[in-house]
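Q: Can I see a sequence and its folded structure?
A: Here is a first one.
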Amino acid sequence: MRLRLRVGLPTALLALTVLTLTACSSNPARRAERGGASHGAPRDNTSLSQAQRYHQRNDSTPDIADIDFSKIPEPVPEALPRSRYGNKSPYSVNGRSYRVLSSAAGYDERGIASWYGTKFNGYKTSNFETYDMYKFSAASPVLPLPSFARVTNLANGKSVVVRVNDRGPFVPNRIIDLSLAAAVRIGIYPKGSGLVEVQGIDPAHPHAEPAPVTAVTARNGKAPQLYVQVGAFADAGNADRLAARLRGQGLGTVRVVSAKVGGRTLNRVQIGPLSDADAVDRTTAKLDTLGLPHASVAIQ
């Protein structure tokens, strides 16, 4: 598998202090149809460092040609108590601080999704469940464990309900790390990433579905477009000054877009459109070297 497929790999790099415990194995792909990662699962010594814990150095995927992912059942959302592990808040990873939400209810975010596979299969997740790449699950840096969310691919409108039971991905510009099965179901596999909308499911009303998301292509006839948003200002002059500075750095097309937010006008300074997640990463890395606040991803 190409290395670029593992853009979400830092799920495995979460410091032990926040109990990132993700999963892996070399079990045959057909085991998905027999249900579960326990058969032949690797020994998981969670006391080891992340560099020593996994049997594989790099992530990979099994042969999935004979698996019908449409027959794998989606998890049924239900109100569940918080896990004892994996819900520390705030917590820090790679110098960045995260706060775990009190509930998945009302969470709705667009961004870049990645996925993780064989390296972590059969190992413990952050809340000490066992990661099974043939089930619909996911890692989130902020959703409570466990919780449920609907993930929709903005390029094609395909969606899946996932059980959030892990922490990650801990790299810039990613909002969720999907299991292999979830990535296949919505069409992000075999690419390394995709543009998605993640909607939390209210545990108090588990059967109330979030509002359906329409593929961007179906709405305007165009593929989703990626931008890096560097700032948002109530003062249009501040936005124009930042835009002028960015244009002098050779970062690509810079635009200022005005929008009404909470009854006031915000002027958003954005770079793009950008071709893919790799271009977003290169742009934000260059912005970091300029000493600018870390940018966010905007999808239109």
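Q: Show me another, different protein.
A: A second, unrelated one:
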Amino acid sequence: MNNPITMKLNVDKLLMQALQEDITSEDISTNAVMPEYQKGQVELICKQDGIVAGLFVFQRVFELLDDTVSFEMKVKDGEAVKKGQLMAVVTGDIRALLSGERTALNYLQRMSGIATYTNSIVKLLEGSKTTLLDTRKTTPNMRIFEKYAVKAGGGTNHRYNLSDAVMLKDNHIGAAGGITQAVKMARAYCSFVNKVEVEVENLDMVKEAVEAGADIIMLDNMSHDEMKEAIRLIDGRALTECSGNVTKETIPEILDLGVDFVSSGALTHSAPILDISLKNLHSISHVSEH
């Protein structure tokens, strides 16, 4: 996601909106104590163990404020970091370092928290056939960052948005008049390249989804025994996905099922931030701005 084209098309405008939210006209605190250009340096320090994600976003925030800023990165996205570890050294206009600090850290802390939480569940699934997926339960205007963070933590992205794939949930099924009709209508409307996923809540719905030819069947909020029987009924005729209140605490309960995928909204809506700070800001020269 951090190639120049992707950044300009998708990321820069969101970062600018975040900066404008924090600085409506000027940063009066910074302008009061630093009225002119002064080159400075600050350290990015991790304050708890975790997985880092979003370093390129952190970097880009400062680049939008100061095109001369430079970075000495000590870690890469997806790597484990430890409490007290020096993650990067940032050098540039002190005014930009001060004004961009909170916005840059907000992204980095949030994304690293998601990567850390995701990785903790990925480790629980090691050795099983089950792949961990995220959901669309993301913070508005943060999806591109949050889904990237899931990947950095070792997880896999489900559909990015409503245009990506056909997922027939309870209300779609209700609107169509049943699973069979909903699948039939989806097949008629969509391209042959689109798979059809159907959300089911009981064994009768499982049977109907299989008979209707669903490609993926999502077992939503079903008991362990119901899911076990559902997987037996499906018998490999569709991919299986388990969903509904999936957290780090509940993952061990489904490890024996052999479900193909497990999706968790908690990855993006409930992950705590990773505590990261910018510290030790200091001037490194007295060169005047030209």
